[in-house]
Amino acid sequence: MYGEKLNLKDFRNYRQLELGLPRGLVVFEGENAVGKTSLLEALYLLATTKSPRAGTEQELVSLEAEPQFGAPAFARLSAEIVRQEGAIEAEILIIRDGEGSEITPTNSSRKRIKVNGVSRRAVDLIGQINVVLFSPEDLDLIIGAPALRRRYLDITLSQIDHRYLRALQEYSRVLAQRNGFLRNQKERRRAGRGTTSSLDELAIWDSELVKSGVYIIRRRRECLRGLNERAIGLHANLIGLNSPLTDAMQPSFELVYQPSFKLAGVEDEATLTQHFEAQLKLSHTQELQRGVSLIGPHRDDFAFMIEGADIGIYGSRGQQRTAVLALKLAEVGWMENQTGDPPILMLDDILSELDVNRRQYVLETVQVGAEQVLITTTDLALFGNHAHLQQIAALYHVGSGRVTRL
User: Fold this and answer.
1) Tens digits of per-residue pLDDT, 206-265?
2) Do 80 and 181 share a domain, yes or no?
3) How far is residue 39's CA from residue 371's CA, in Å, rounded to a whole number?
4) What is the rounded distance in angstroms from the CA atom of residue 275 to the CA atom of residue 231?
5) 249 and 241 in contact (C-beta within 8 Å)?
6) Is residue 360 part of a domain?
7) Which residues of 289-318 are buried (b: 16+ CB within 10 A; e: fewer)?
């Protein structure tokens, strides 16, 4: 899979961009804050319908964009993607709030999506394009809140498994309703109006939560197992210990799934369902007291471990960076295994964080693992011999909202 064309209109600092992209290694060079990362962001947005860095989607619309013919200002981004199962054109239009009269209370969507020229929902676009993005901010995967790690798993799995995406949407809906019921019961008890039927009603919500929650838990565990199998060797190579002479010295690296209840020895879906239901029943009293759901995949987490120690707590910044890089490189192979088509790999200004040996290993690895690799950098010298780089990569200069081939 690779992006063949990328078109942007009033997206970030790009007023108008039409960019053709080749397969293989593509390097975008330029100063900081000139729009390199925005190119990767656009492709990520087209794959997942979410920005990896914007606080709100309104930030994506250029400040210079203006309303036209009574319609509000908007950003448009589109790409033509070549896939094994056939080419696809994806388009997202993001409308700026508070402008024009086209948007009404009954038509309040701020994001319009098209697939091959036909209007679609976000769920219809997710999974059509697969991407893996690694940026310096991904260190938060290790040191940040559990919600960030859950989001990582959700985005990764949703790209390759539509049943997972539907289960996630259903789980979120039921969870919100169950929490509303628990809050209501908490207030009734405070007011002295508690009812004996609350446990019976809660059992009904349990059944709905388990239906979608079991699949989420199972797929998350399978995903982490698959990623772990690949990440172990990649991590060993990145720390320079993958040789017969040092095998005994290799620190054990592991991605450890941490569900909200114990799953030791539980493999099949039927047993997992029974465990989930039993744990929910055990938590009923505490949930009614606190007014919130305490058990389920919305409380899941996973940890990056070396020699049994959580490197989010005990690891150095260098160890954390290496662990996340191993995860992202593993993700490329895992996604290809799941879909039969390698995802587009995007590395945002990470070479400056690595020493010479690790840079070389990453460059060699990504050229084998992905059909298209997009890398941003402020310094082409980080790639070593410039003449050799010109032979193996397509080079582009980015500046002031323009992209030119070198």
Assistant:
1) 999 999 999 999 999 999 999 999 999 999 998 885 444 444 455 689 999 999 988 877
2) no
3) 18
4) 30
5) yes
6) no
7) eebebbbbbbebbbbbbbeeeebbeebeee
Closest CA to 7 of 128, 93, 121, 97: 93
Residue 115 CB neighbours (<10 A):
16
Instruction: Concatenate the DSSP letters of all residues of 5-53 into one string.
Output: EEEEEEETTEEEEEEE--SEEEEEE--TTSSHHHHHHHHHHHHHSS-SS
pLDDT of residue 401: 86
What is the pLDDT at residue 196? 56
Q: How far is CA 68 from the centre of its chain?
A: 34
C-beta separation of 214 from 273 below 8 A: yes
Cα distance between residue 326 and residue 329, in whole Å: 5
Residue 255: which of 209, 324, 343, 314 has the closest Cα? 324
Residue 351 in any domain: the answer is: no
E strands within 161-281? 253-258
36 token code pair: 């390199």
DSSP lists the bridge partners of residue 88 as 81
R_g of the chain computed on alpha carbons: 24
Question: What total number of domains does the chain contain?
Answer: 2
Which domain CATH number covers 99?
3.40.50.300
Q: Name the residue among 239, 255, 253, 249 with its Cα closest to residue 362.
A: 239
Return the SS3 of 400. Answer: coil
Order of strands, sheet of 131-134, starting from the edge strand that comes earlier in the sequence: 131-134, 344-348, 372-377, 24-29, 393-399, 402-405
Residues 78 and 144 in one domain: no
- Its domain, for residue 212, covers 135-340
Tokens standing for 91? 């388009």
